[in-house]
Amino acid sequence: MRAKGLSREKVLAGLKQARAKDLNYENGKILCSMCTTPHSAARMAHELFSNSNLGDPKLFPGSVQLEKEVVSTLAELLHGKKSVGFIVSGGTEANLLAMLAARNNAGAKEPEVILPESAHFSFSKICSLLKLKPVYARLDNSFRVESSSVEQQISKNTVAIVATAGSAELGAIDPIDKLSKIALDHGVYLHVDAAFGGLVIPFLKELGYPAPEFDFQLEGVQSVTVDPHKMGLSTIPAGGILFRDSTYLECIKTETPYLTEECQYTFVGTRPGASAAAAWAVFASLGREGFLKTVKHCMELTERLSSGLEALDFEVLLRPTMNIVAFRCANAKRLTDKLRKRGWFVSYVPRLDCVRIVLMPHSTKQHIEAFLQCLSEVSKS
Ligand code: PLP
Known about the structure:
Layout: H1 8-21, H2 40-48, H3 61-77, E1 84-88, H4 91-106, E2 112-116, H5 122-130, E3 133-137, H6 147-153, E4 158-164, H7 176-186, E5 189-193, H8 201-204, E6 221-225, E7 239-243, E8 254-255, E9 263-264, H9 273-311, E10 315-316, E11 324-328, H10 332-341, E12 347-349, E13 354-358, H11 365-380
Parallel strand pairs: 2-3, 2-4, 4-5, 5-6
Antiparallel strand pairs: 1-7, 6-7, 8-9, 10-11, 11-13, 12-13
Helix pairs in contact: 2-9, 3-9, 4-5, 9-11
């Protein structure tokens, strides 16, 4: 550490120098991220609540109220009539809390969790932390988990089945209606990872796109992950975990001896009230109408990109169900590298040997046309 502090101007100059090295969403060249430019109201709220700690709630009753209201808005969107939940650090922590609840609730000696082959990598970390044995279920031709494969894997050790509503790689939505029935028949906990899809799918039907049931409407679903810091246009970090009802809270409770509350339910102790405030500010500013507009924009870009890729003779892997497109070509990894040299950031997915693109609110029609133009040049070189 330096002996004496710098002036505000010098600190700002240092920050700006580092910031200039970061990519920005605004020029449209980030096509691989599930995060985006936060809504201006989220940034305002984040600044206003920068010292608020939801881990010490009696000091910050206003922030607690905002967190409750955000959770109740999410619950309403996800048809959770008695849902309870928390704003956490992201999808990873949300999935962790769901698996902790499921494992502690079941009390099996050698606990196992059934995961689709497409499950997010956060579950690898979680299984290792919670000493859960991951058991993988096969996918069908449309990259959704095969419900029969899930059912075959159920054993006396199964503490949870995980389904994904919007896989990170392709945006595929598992057949959660079938999994819900299986979970109820076998008395197994079903968790839905809708970290990305939870703020997209609830708006699809009204926009004329197919939208399968994926939430608490299905009786077997016990918890859902849904992240405001992805399609919720909130500032980072803002994940969300919702449980069907309060019965699971006992399973994730930790006593907190010296704080202004007696127990906590989240993994992270000191929790930013700014995250809840930012999510609240976005919901208040946009309302349902604003979310519909945002999702419509992303889906229209998705359709345009998908047809543009087909016109260039690329093999689009799956008719997009959400705002993610993936395509195959002769050397997808090399193509990804070439695009990166031209400034375009897309993902390469080794498991599927494909290029993956996420159409987020920061992208525009002009960006997508420019990308298709560059892709057509690069793929011939
Ligand atoms: N689950 C899904 C489906 C995701 O897409 C992601 C992240 O992209 C996560 C979980 C993990 O979320 P986070 O990176 O916020 O921890």
